[in-house]
Write a structure and sequence with these properties.
Blueprint (H helix, E strand, L loop, with lengths): L1 E7 L7 H8 L4 E7 L8 E3 L4 E3 L10 E4 L20 H8 L3 E4 L5 H9 L7 E5 L10 H14 L4 E4 L2 H9 L7 E3 L6 H6 L1 H15 L6 E8 L6 H11 L4 E8 L3 H8 L5 E4 L7 H6 L3 E4 L10 H8 L4 E4 L5 H4 L6 E4 L4 H11 L3 H15 L4 H15 L1
Parallel strand pairs: 1-2, 1-6, 2-5, 6-7, 7-8, 8-9, 10-11, 10-13, 11-12, 13-14, 14-15
Antiparallel strand pairs: 3-4
Helix pairs in contact: 8-13
C-alpha cells in the first residue's frame, strides 16, 4: 500500500470529504498536512468580511496533522500568510512514497520545494489555474518562465479541467505527466439532501418574501469585484423579465453597493452567507444559477458543481474556469462574454424564453455532473501514483 502525504493550506469544505473518500478506499494510505486552521474555528474571512466556521465535519475519517504557522498575518490572501518552518520535518517523519501538493504560491511551499529530496520521494501538484485571458507583455513572459521553472519540481501534475490542462501545457508540462483529476464536490451529500432541500426551499421562499409564482435567478458567493455581482444586477434590470426574481446569497465588500442599486426594485432579494448544511436549500429555491465572474480569479467555480447536483441550469461568463467542462450552450445552460452586461441580459432573456426547455437544461446538468465526482477525481490521482511508482 502506497503512503501519500497531502499538503493543503487549510481544511476546505470541498476537499475534506475527498480526503475521507481516499482514506476509505483501502488501497492507499493518506495523511494530510494542514498549514493553517481556518474553517474549524471561527476566523475572519477577508472576502466574506465576517467570521466563518464550516458546519460540516472537516477533520473526520482521515489522518491529518497541523503544521505550526508562524506568520504574523496567517491566511491564504497573501504570499507570507503560510509560514511553516517544521513542514519538511513533519512530512519526512511520515515517510511517504509520494507527496501531493494542493497549493504552491506561498512562502512555506517554496521553502519546501527547495529543501525536499524529490529524486527520492516524488512530488505531484494539483492546480486549477487557467489562461482564459491571454495576457501579453514582458511581465507576462517573465511570469511564464518563473512558473515553468516551479513546475519542473513536480514529477506529475493533476489537471481539473480543459482550461487547466492548457495552462499546464503552456508552462511546459509534458502530456505524459498530466492526469485528469476533475474538480468535484461531495455529489452524494448534495443529491441525498435534494428532496429535503426542496421542502425547506418552499418555506424559505415565503420567508424571503419572493412571490410563489416567480422563478428565481440565484447568485451564490462573495460579493467582490472578481465575481461581478453588479453585472448580474444590471443585466437583470436590463432584461426586464416577467415573474422572475433575483436572489443574492452571500456577503462581501460590494454588499452595500448592491443593496443601494437594488433599492426600490421589488424583485431583487438578499440572503446572508449560508453555511454548508443550508447551501442545498439555496440552490433548491432557484431555477437558474448565474456566475458572471471576470478575470483570472475564478479558476473553476465550485458553486456550479453544487448547483448542478441540485439540477440547476447554469449561465457563466467566458472567464469561469469550469466553462468548457460543465456548461454546454443550449444543452444545460449558456455562456456569455465576460464583462458584457448586455450579453448577460440577452442570456437571461434567452434562458427564460422557454421555461420547459430551462427545466430540461437542469436535468442535463445532473447528468453532466455525475462524471465530476470524487470517484473520477481519485482515478486521476491513482493513475499519477502508478506512473511514478
Amino acid at each position: 500500500m502506497q503512503k501519500l502525504a497531502i499538503i493543503s493550506s487549510h481544511p476546505i469544505q470541498y476537499y475534506a470529504p475527498w480526503y475521507k473518500y481516499l482514506a476509505h478506499l483501502g488501497n492507499i494510505e493518506i495523511k494530510v498536512f494542514y498549514l493553517w486552521d481556518f474553517g474549524i474555528k471561527k476566523t475572519i474571512d477577508v472576502n466574506f468580511q465576517q467570521a466563518i466556521q464550516w458546519d460540516i465535519p472537516l477533520l473526520d475519517g482521515y489522518d491529518y496533522e497541523f503544521v505550526a504557522n508562524v506568520s504574523k498575518n496567517p491566511g491564504t490572501h497573501h504570499f507570507w500568510g503560510l509560514q511553516n518552518p517544521s513542514l519538511v520535518a513533519q512530512v519526512a517523519a511520515y515517510n511517504p512514497d509520494v507527496v501531493l501538493l494542493m497549493v504552491y504560491n506561498y512562502a512555506s511551499i517554496y521553502r519546501f520545494l527547495v529543501a525536499w529530496n524529490r529524486d527520492k520521494i516524488p512530488l505531484i501538484f494539483r492546480g486549477d489555474s487557467h489562461r482564459l485571458i491571454d495576457n501579453k507583455g514582458i511581465k507576462s513572459w517573465a511570469r511564464r518562465q518563473f512558473i515553468s521553472l516551479i513546475y519542473r519540481h513536480f514529477a506529475a501534475c493533476l489537471y481539473v479541467g480543459k482550461a487547466n490542462y492548457d495552462y499546464f501545457r503552456y508552462h511546459g508540462v509534458s502530456r505524459n505527466k498530466l492526469f485528469f483529476s476533475p474538480h468535484s464536490v461531495d455529489n452524494e451529500r448534495f443529491i441525498a439532501q435534494a428532496a429535503t432541500a426542496k421542502l425547506q426551499a418552499e418555506v424559505w421562499k415565503q420567508e424571503l418574501g419572493i412571490p410563489q409564482n416567480h422563478a428565481v435567478i440565484i447568485f451564490v458567493g462573495k460579493f467582490e469585484l472578481k465575481k461581478r455581482p453588479l453585472d448580474l444586477l444590471d443585466a437583470f434590470l436590463q432584461a426586464g423579465l416577467t415573474d422572475v426574481s433575483l436572489l443574492f446569497v452571500g456577503a462581501g465588500n460590494l454588499e452595500e453597493n448592491l443593496k443601494q442599486k437594488a433599492a426600490g426594485n421589488p424583485n431583487i432579494y438578499f440572503a446572508p452567507f449560508q453555511n454548508q448544511s443550508l447551501i442545498p436549500r439555496a440552490y433548491a429555491v432557484a431555477d437558474l444559477l448565474v456566475l458572471p465572474s471576470y478575470g483570472e480569479g475564478e479558476t473553476w467555480g465550485l458553486v456550479v458543481n453544487e448547483a448542478m447536483c441540485l439540477g440547476l441550469p447554469i449561465i457563466v461568463s467566458s472567464h469561469v474556469g469550469c466553462t468548457q467542462d460543465l456548461v454546454h450552450p443550449y444543452h444545460n445552460g449558456l455562456v456569455f462574454e465576460a464583462g458584457n452586461v448586455s450579453a448577460l441580459a440577452k442570456s437571461l432573456s434567452e434562458a427564460f424564453q422557454d421555461r420547459k426547455r430551462l427545466k430540461s437544461w437542469g436535468e442535463k446538468s445532473m447528468s453532466i455532473i455525475s462524471n465530476y465526482s470524487y470517484n473520477q477525481t481519485t482515478q486521476g490521482l491513482i493513475q499519477a501514483i502508478q506512473y511514478l511508482i
